[in-house]
Amino acid sequence: MGARLLLAIVVFMAGLAGCSSMGVAKLDCSNQTKDVWVAAECRFIATDYAGALQDYQRIAATPATKVQVANKLQPHVETLITKGKLLVARDYLDTGLALARAVNDQRLTASYLMLLGELAYRLGDYDKAKSYMEQAQPLLKQTDQPLFAIRNRNNLGNTLSNLGQFDKAEQALDQALADAIAQNDHAHIAQTLNNQGGLFYNLRRYAKAMIVLEQAEAHAIKAQHTRLQLYAAATKGAVLRQQGDFVKALQEYERALTISKRFPAELQHEIGTSKRVIAELLIYSPENDHTKNLALAEQYLQEALVLHRENPIEMGLALNHLGEISLERHDVPTAIRYFEQGLQNYQALDYPDGVGRSHLNIGRAHNAGGQYPKALQALDKANEIYTRLRDREWLRVGLYERALAYERLGKIDLAERDYKASVDNLESIRGDVHGDQVAQELFTEVNSNVYERLVSLLMEKGDIAGALEYIERSRLRALDEYMLSSRGGDSDSNSAESDTNTKDALTREKIKELREQAAKSLLEGGKGVKTLMDTAAKEFQDRQKDITQKVTLEFATTSVNKASNLPPDTAVITYFPAIKATYAFVSRGGRKPVAYTLANLDQAKLHDYVLSARSYLQHKENTSGKEILASLYTIFISPIEEMIQDNQTLIIYPHDYLTYIPFEALISPDQKYLVESKRVTYAHSINDLYDAFDKNRSGINLQSVAVFANPQPLPAGLKELANAEKEADKIKENLPQSLVKVLKGEQATEQAFKEEWGKHEIIHVAAHGKASPEESVLYLAKGNSQNEDGKLTQDDMPDLGDDSIESSGKVQLVVLSACETAVDSNVTNAPMGESVAKLGLAGMVHQFASTGVPSKIGSLWEVNDASTSVLMGDMYKFIGKQGKMKVPYDAFRDAQLEMIKGGGIPSHPFYWAGFVYFGVPQ
């Protein structure tokens, strides 16, 4: 948890050691000499630094020797600092500055002021550092030392940043960069870009930080400057780690360690820094065995402590990380002892960021140990510091931890205040995450507990409107599936409840791994699954009265006010799993909304139900798992069945694991699928849904359909979709031919898709698709255009339109008749839930939501080519039988019912429930 501190070290060292070529000549010290100069230098080489300094002070007896000694001391200072001998270096610098001033040598005075400023910065004394640097800058210009002037301005920018004077810091670094470019010096350009990356990191402008850090590394390579390459790699690792991308962060840190190993023995402290930052990643990394990771991290940190004996900031970082390891091992007393040692280090230096981090960690530890008043004392101090430093990231974590403490103490209003403030900080940072939408989703996922806890707290208060507001905000922040890879923790565990958001990723991954092993055994033994589900269903039926607690309140949010415009036969059902329970919210037109608490359904149980249901649904050969669909009906539909009995249309707004379940396939007590008695569609966003209702109440006046089928040639590894062209032919047969434009094979290009967009009410794509955390893609033909690659991705969505319905032109429905278009491919192939992709924002179906199209159809798993052709052909057959105003959902549902009623193999939900309808069913 020391990423900001890491940047302080990185930018300082890059500023200090990046551009000087000063060094110490190698001497033959084997024989005693009467030459006082040689004797002093030999003492220095023998690491008798105090004795060497005394020799130099004795030599400096005349103006001439004062200048000579002052010149001699500077390369020694550089050597001492690179070896981490900071306090000794300060003695040398004080002596050198006194000598330079004694002879009124402005050039030497300027360089010593610059070096003293750097050292004060290194020791965390930013006010003194700023004073030295501001004195040095005009003297450096006056004495015509342009490279030192750039170096000093860089460090002044870093100092101003740490003092919270970010605007002035940015100005200083911009000027330093302009000066470095004017000098055409790649090393200084790289140094300045590294420091700008550090500034943007501290401002949590992650995307901009990564851009300048990549530029910094490029210039460092041109300059053949290994150390600046190291700092660029390490800082990029810090950015990625802070965003929650542990895998990529660890890659950057390991690359930094590889680079540091090229350094000579006298620069071993660089390896110490690299080991320390890798240890931090190992503590929270979701990769490999956690126990082994902690042991290796502890080893690295102990080695780093030895290498940084005279570097108090690095020692403070290592001590804090050792405390985090103890906290991971649930050894609270040892954790507090380490954190307090780190605090003492930082307080001695008056280093505010380190003091704040230590207080924050002490607060975390007291939360974990149930000492909430002590936690509040420490967290108040941390939050005051991070408010002053304007550090949104660590203030967010501090507010979250303080909210936990208030909640445990029963101070609900104060907890609510801090949870909301933490969410505001989280959402303000998310827009600055480096990378595409997936990177932003990942950042939000590892920081998602604050939404869960806030929603739970608001529900406990009976503030349903407030809970719905934050559910919607969590959805908009790509939290559709933030618990797929998590169990969430035992609600009775103080330690689990006091975990900060940034460490949750590891906890979730480890629990997921254990859960996967258990689920595998269940899946291999069908009887075990059946017994489990039978018992669960009976438990829910027997305890029906205890499971649900009904609360009826007027909703105050905008989206809830819009609910009054829902058609009378429509109910919108929001399902939101939080840490302690799963909540169901029912909104109906013209009626008061109602909320239910499914009291015994925590995240662990929910995950296990969804795993078993997915195993049955996406494996057509599995004929013995229908009981789980009946159990899910009992859990999610039975509690609200009486309320929705008059609602023919159900629009499900699912969150988290539930986005992977087709609710229309749930089985009622009379052994009927839900789709047989209700119209079932899904929503991406409540507000978008209500807007679509306002503008699309009467169906589609169908005038044309564009069909893209079996694009050719296919990318390597993809099989030809034998039935895709037959599907296109069936669509044309079932509608008036004048309405249908079919583009097959080589005609089904990405360019053609973009050209036809907006000209048709329905766009139908029968092609390969893949949704994954890395890239969600529809594979079209490449064609002859040099600007197209045949892959339709999220990056292409702006070319189609914005999120307003009008921008999509005539398009009212997009049908993605392809495998894996609404869910991550890893999930479809691995029911254990290996992926962290979000249904709704990772799948291609949901990417079309950004174009303003009101309705979409896509698949939840890898669908069968032949049965898909039948299902889609029947859908258009039923569309053709409707009147002038077409209602595609009803045709889609009729096609599903046709397969169910037909019996035999195609009646298995694998064949007809794999496709789901998002949007307005009118």
From TrEMBL:
Coiled coil: 714-741
Keywords associated with the record: Coiled coil, Signal, TPR repeat
InterPro entries assigned: CHAT_dom (IPR024983), TPR-like_helical_dom_sf (IPR011990), TPR_rpt (IPR019734)
Region forming the signal peptide: 1-25
Superkingdom, natural source: Bacteria
Annotated TPR repeat ranges: 230-263
Gene3D superfamilies: Tetratricopeptide repeat domain (1.25.40.10)
Residues in CHAT domain copies: 627-919
Protein name as it appears in the record: CHAT domain-containing protein
Protein species of origin: Thiothrix caldifontis
Lineage of origin: Bacteria, Pseudomonadati, Pseudomonadota, Gammaproteobacteria, Thiotrichales
